Amino acid sequence: MLAVIATGPLAVASFRTAAALWGFDRYRQGPIEVLCPRWARCHERPVLIHETRELPTRDLTLHLGIPITAPTRTLIDLGRYLPASRLGQLMDDAVRLKMTSYEELHLRLAELSRPGRAGIGRSRLALSTRGVHSVVPDSSLEELALRILRGAEIPEPVVHHPIHVHDQLFVVDIAWPEARLALECDGFLFHSGPEQLRADHHRQNLLATAGWTLLRTDWHTLRTDPSHLIAQIASALA
User: Could you tell me where in the chain the CATH 3.40.960.10 domains are found?
Assistant: First the structure.
């Protein structure tokens, strides 16, 4: 906090410092970075100072008593340093924790976009597979599956897709509705007992009668060799 204040009265914690202060998952503290208006002439060493023409009040807040860029602005600014894949993970984390929304990220990115602005391309790429109304994965296993699917250039699926069959509602983890293809991500607690096993069989059979193909995957498959699964999905979507 002292480093931010010493830099100047209009300076705020930003970029990697803001990411660490917000506690974004998988993000570690880097060098102390602050953001200030270009005309403010902020100064302090060894703080890394970023100047900007755009620092409206909606991009600013207090967190832990420290002036800081809001989560949405912080995530967009991180495009300067992070590859799109990792930035997308942080965006998912923030949306899951209700710190921002995909809609807010899209809107602010559009407003901040201008030729030559560092990191905007990577921020745009991270959001290109996350629509305004996308549903954030609710487990790290689903998140891993989506990253692998996107890396294999599989068409973007729907997350948590509802399916009505014979007056029953089922929600599948990942789906391609037009192809009636679904993918379930089975965590460590999958089939925790005989009752759950029977329920899963009943669910899978009903989905099959409605013309759905249900594939399954798990941690071992995704971490070791997902190529066979990718081939199955690509074939079903062809």
Answer: 140-237
* Residue 81 φ then ψ, to 5°: -115, -30
Q: How would you classify residue 14: left for phi > 0, otherwise alpha for psi between -120 and 50, otherwise beta?
A: beta
Question: Can you list the positions of beta strands (E) in 4-156?
Answer: 12-13, 33-37, 48-52, 60-63, 66-69
- Give the tens place of pLDDT for each residue, 107-137: 999 999 988 788 999 999 999 888 888 888 7
Which candidate, 66, 68, 81, places its Cα nearest to that of 28? 81
CA end-to-end span of the chain = 55
Q: Does residue 46 have a cis bond before it (omega within 30 degrees)? A: yes
> Which homologous superfamily is 140-237 in?
VSR Endonuclease (3.40.960.10)
Q: What percent of the chain has pLDDT over 70?
A: 87
pLDDT class of 188 with cuts at 50, 70, 90: low
pTM of the model: 0.66
